[in-house]
Amino acid sequence: MRMYANLWNADDWATRGGRVKTDWSGAPFTASFRNINIDGCVHTNGRSSCSTNKPSSSWYTQQMDATSQARLEWVQKNYMIYTYCTDTEKFPQGVPSECATSV
Q: CA–CA separation, 1 vs 37, rounded Å?
């Protein structure tokens, strides 16, 4: 299994609709990963490869309580600059299917 990461110039859509430009003066950029442990699942045709036999204490089954949900919503409202799940200009035919997935 491999993991890839990349940077791309999304100035025209991902930075407040192009109003905030990326500062490329710091290029070239370097990223590194240390002690990374990925426990991933493959989603195909709406089905997950993740086992449903995880113990109830597993992070797979954890849910946010009302206080945590309210905190997350506050952070999103006050700090989140962009989410493609609400970008109807980029996706005039409808946002990607993962945007409809409730977590």
A: 12
Q: Say whether 54 sits in a helix, a strand or coil.
A: coil
Counted residue by residue, the chain has a size of 103
Q: Which residues of 1-29 are buried (b: 16+ CB within 10 A; e: fewer)?
A: eeeeeeeeeeeeebeeeeeeeeeeeeeee
Query: Which tokens go with 60?
Result: 């797979």
H-type alpha helices, the chain: 66-79
* pLDDT tens track for 55-87: 555 665 677 889 999 999 999 899 887 888 888
* pTM assigned to the model: 0.40
The amino acid sitting at 17 is G
